[in-house]
Design a protein that fits this description.
About 5% of the residues lie in helices and about 40% in strands. The protein is mostly beta strands. The chain has a 5-stranded mixed beta barrel. A hairpin with a 5-residue loop joins strand 8 and strand 9. The longest helix is centred in the first third of the chain and has 7 residues. It starts with a helix and ends in a 6-residue tail after the last strand. This is DUF35 domain-containing protein.
Length: about 150
């Protein structure tokens, strides 16, 4: 998303290359090796499995299941640390079928998470730019929850 678009909408993706489009509800962009069918996220230019030098862009599913998880209970190191008070957050591996994606989770209560929990893609605010623009990143939320 361009700076002009961010000024109009008040938000931008943390990295547009992670998403298929710059739309707010854009799915994640992966890559698939035509030789061995390995799928990667984020998209890569070459295959980490067979060494193939070409990868085809694929749109990743918006829904998956929780493969593993933890709750981050300590503040990240610089440059990811902010001046705001730290709040624990969920982190998990989400099985999207052909690929498992590491992601923030919208749930930070370990007792509310279980392996196999159905999840769906959403976005969350990662931080605010100096001008107040929301910088959003992808996350997964329980599929039964109302869309954010």
């Amino acid at each position: 998303m361009t700076t002009q678009a961010a000024a109009t909408t008040g938000w931008r993706h943390i990295d547009d290359t992670l998403f298929v489009t710059t739309d707010a509800d854009a799915p994640l962009r992966g890559a698939k090796c035509p030789a061995c069918s390995t799928v990667t996220f984020p998209a890569q230019d070459s295959c980490p499995r067979c060494g193939g030098s070409t990868m085809a862009e694929v749109t990743l599913p918006r829904q998956g299941t929780l493969w593993s998880y933890t709750v981050q209970s300590f503040a990240p190191k610089s440059p990811f640390r902010t001046t705001e008070p730290f709040t624990p957050f969920g982190v998990g591996y989400v099985d999207l079928g052909d690929v498992i994606v590491e992601s923030r989770l919208t749930v930070a209560d370990a007792d509310a998470l279980t392996i196999g929990l159905p999840l769906r893609l959403t976005t969350i605010v990662n931080h605010l730019d100096a001008d107040g623009t929301e910088v959003r990143t992808f996350a997964f939320e329980p599929a039964g929850k109302a869309a954010s």
